[in-house]
Amino acid sequence: MKIINPSLSADADYVYMKSIEELQAIAMQVRRDIIRMTSDAKSGHPGGSLGCADFMTTLFFNVMNIEPDKFQMSGRGEDMFFLSNGHISPVLYAVMARRGYFPVNELATFRKIGTRLQGHPSPMLSGIRAASGSLGQGLSVAIGAALGKKLDNDANLVYVLCGDGELQEGQNWEALMYAAAKKVDNLIAVIDYNNLQIDGTCDEVCSLGNLQDKLTAFGWTTLHVPGHDVSEVQRALYYAKTLCGQKKPVIILLKTEMGHGVDFMAGDNKWHGSVTNAEQTQQALAQLTETLGDYQ
Ligand SMILES: Cc1ncc(C[n+]2csc(CCOP(=O)(O)OP(=O)(O)O)c2C)c(N)n1
Fold this sequence. Notes:
Elements (H helix, E strand, L loop, with lengths): L19 H22 L4 H6 L1 H11 L16 E4 L5 H11 L38 H14 L6 E6 L7 H11 L5 E7 L2 E2 L2 E2 H5 L4 H7 L3 E6 L3 H14 L6 E6 L22 H9 L10
Parallel strand pairs: 1-2, 2-3, 3-7, 6-7
Antiparallel strand pairs: 4-5
Helix pairs in contact: 1-3, 1-4, 1-10, 3-4, 3-9
The protein binds thiamine diphosphate (TPP).
Thiamine diphosphate (TPP) binds next to helix 2 and strand 4.
C-alpha cells in the first residue's frame, strides 16, 4: 500500500500511517535487530545504526511514498532513498526487512558469505539503488537522481542520509554548492549529526565549525531536529516536504546520539565499528524490548 503524507494528499484510500507508539515499537525492534545482527556476524557498525533507528523507521514507514513489493531500480513514480554513510547498513537492512522489502529472517545472513546483506549496501539487494560505504558520494548520487526526476516530470522526492564525519570528504562541498546553484528542490538531505566518528569527535578530527551557518551560506534551507523523538522527526520531515519546490534544496541536521537505546553504548564512539560480545549482547537486549518478534 502506498504511503502518502495525508497533509499532502486528498486520497484517503492511499493513506497508510503508523501511530507514534507503533513507530516507537518498530524502532525498538530495529535496535534489537541491529544488536543481534552485528554481534552474530562479529562485525559491523552498531553505534551509528542505533542512532539512526528512529529516523529511518519514521522515514520508511510514515514519510516516503514507496511500495516495497513493486521496487523498481529506476525509482520512477516513487520516492527514492540513498544511504551515503553505508557503514550503518544494519539499520537500513532492519528497517527494510520490517517494512517488507525482504523476509525478516534474512537478517540472520548479515555479513555472511554469499549474502545479499553485505557489510556495505549493494544493489544485489532489491531496494538498494547504489552501492555505498566509500564515504562522500551519496549526496552527489542523490542530486543526480533528483535531477533525473525533474527530467521525468516525476513529482516524487529523493532522500539521502549522510554522516557528519562524512562531511569531511571534499566531494560533499562540491555537491552542496551544485545543488543550490541548480535549484535542486526535490531533495531532502539529512545529516546524522552525532558529532562522533571513527577516531573521536568530529571537532577533534576536523571540526565542521558552525555547520548550520555553512549550509545556509551554501544556499540550503537548513533545519535542526532532535533525532530520537519520532513525533518531532515526523513533523520535521513533513515540514521539509512542504519546503520542496521552492527553488532551494533542504537539509536536516538530525541531532542523534551514537549507540542510543543501550546505556553502555550511548555517546561513545568506541561503538562506531565494534560489536558487543556475548555478555554485552545480553545486557543490550535486556534494555531493548522485543516488540515485533525477533528474526530467526
Ligand atoms: C572514502 C572513505 N574514507 C574513509 C572511510 C573509513 N570510514 C568509515 S566510517 C568513517 C567515519 C565516518 O564518520 P560518520 O560519518 O560521522 O559516521 P558515524 O561514526 O557517526 O557512524 C570512516 C572515516 C570510508 N568508509 N570511506
